[in-house]
Amino acid sequence: MRLLTVGHSKVLFQTFKVCRDVVRQQSTQNGPPLAQTVVPPVKRFRKTKMIGMVAAGGIVVGTATFLGRIFLSEYRSEVDPKHYYSDWKIRLYTSLPLAATSRCFGYVANVTIPVFLRETLFGTFASMYNCRLDEAIVSDLKSYPSLASFFNRALKTETRPISAVSLVAPADGIVLHYGEVVDRKIEYVKGHDYDVTEFLGPSVPHVKTGNALYQIVVYLAPGDYHAFHSPADWKVNEKVHHPGFLLSVKPSILDWIPRLFCLNERIVLSGAWKHGFFSMSAVAATNVGDINIPLGSAEKEVMKTETHAVFSEDYSYFRGDKVGEFRLGSTIVLIFEAPKTLKFAVQAGDKLRYGQSLIIKDF
What we know:
The chain is of the alpha+beta class.
């Protein structure tokens, strides 16, 4: 590269000054240069004010619509005063972004946790919810890569012996409700009844003479083992997915919101056992937007509506077989046909371990 001499530098400087003067003269004739063109303060203020007013108007309209939907009684509440939309407090609760929160939790539950944090995190959770870590096949907390894997930890076979009777508990949990389904109505709380078809979907059980329809509801708390197992030897011929809310299924919420099980997202497996109709339903809840039920390759969608999707199945289960798993505990509902002589071996409030007998004697 050749260095510029002093003479060269002077020539370049003079050339630059001439070009600058020409550009300035043309800019003066054609108007102010682009760099000097600015929006007057008054116009800028008006534009900003207009944007602010539009945004504020949108917020006011959105808020008014939301509050109106919550506090103003709907026409449906006059026709059906028992439903969730009859109470503004319930409408407010069902309007919360529980689904989005649950989806986020589902994502977090599957994130791989650094090894150095696992023992502290899982140990704290186990202590808070009284998890029986001694029952797990793998007792080393560092071996669980995520929250989901910890929730669904495999248990030692000897800790959950499968009873020899034909109906056993499907999961660890608490019995919320049990008994006969009278006139096809299920009633968990007095005055909160709903038709069995509303919960199950298109699978309408036809009860044979001499039999009755029964139900039992098992609630899985956060500290419970989160997988659920087959309560009987039976065959699944249909699966129905019902989209819906992800409301909490805690007993206190169930007492408050009518027909909550019919509002929440759920998967219903229906088929038959030796006494007739048999169904097993996994109900989703807050922070439980992920229900995993792997079935055979014969699954085929046969119908889809705005309220549910129906799949044909051809799959058999034996007592104790693993059916699926939740991500943070929820509810299992059994609705089944059995002889009128059936006697339950459990009471509401009893703590269950999957595989234990649900009936006093076989039939």
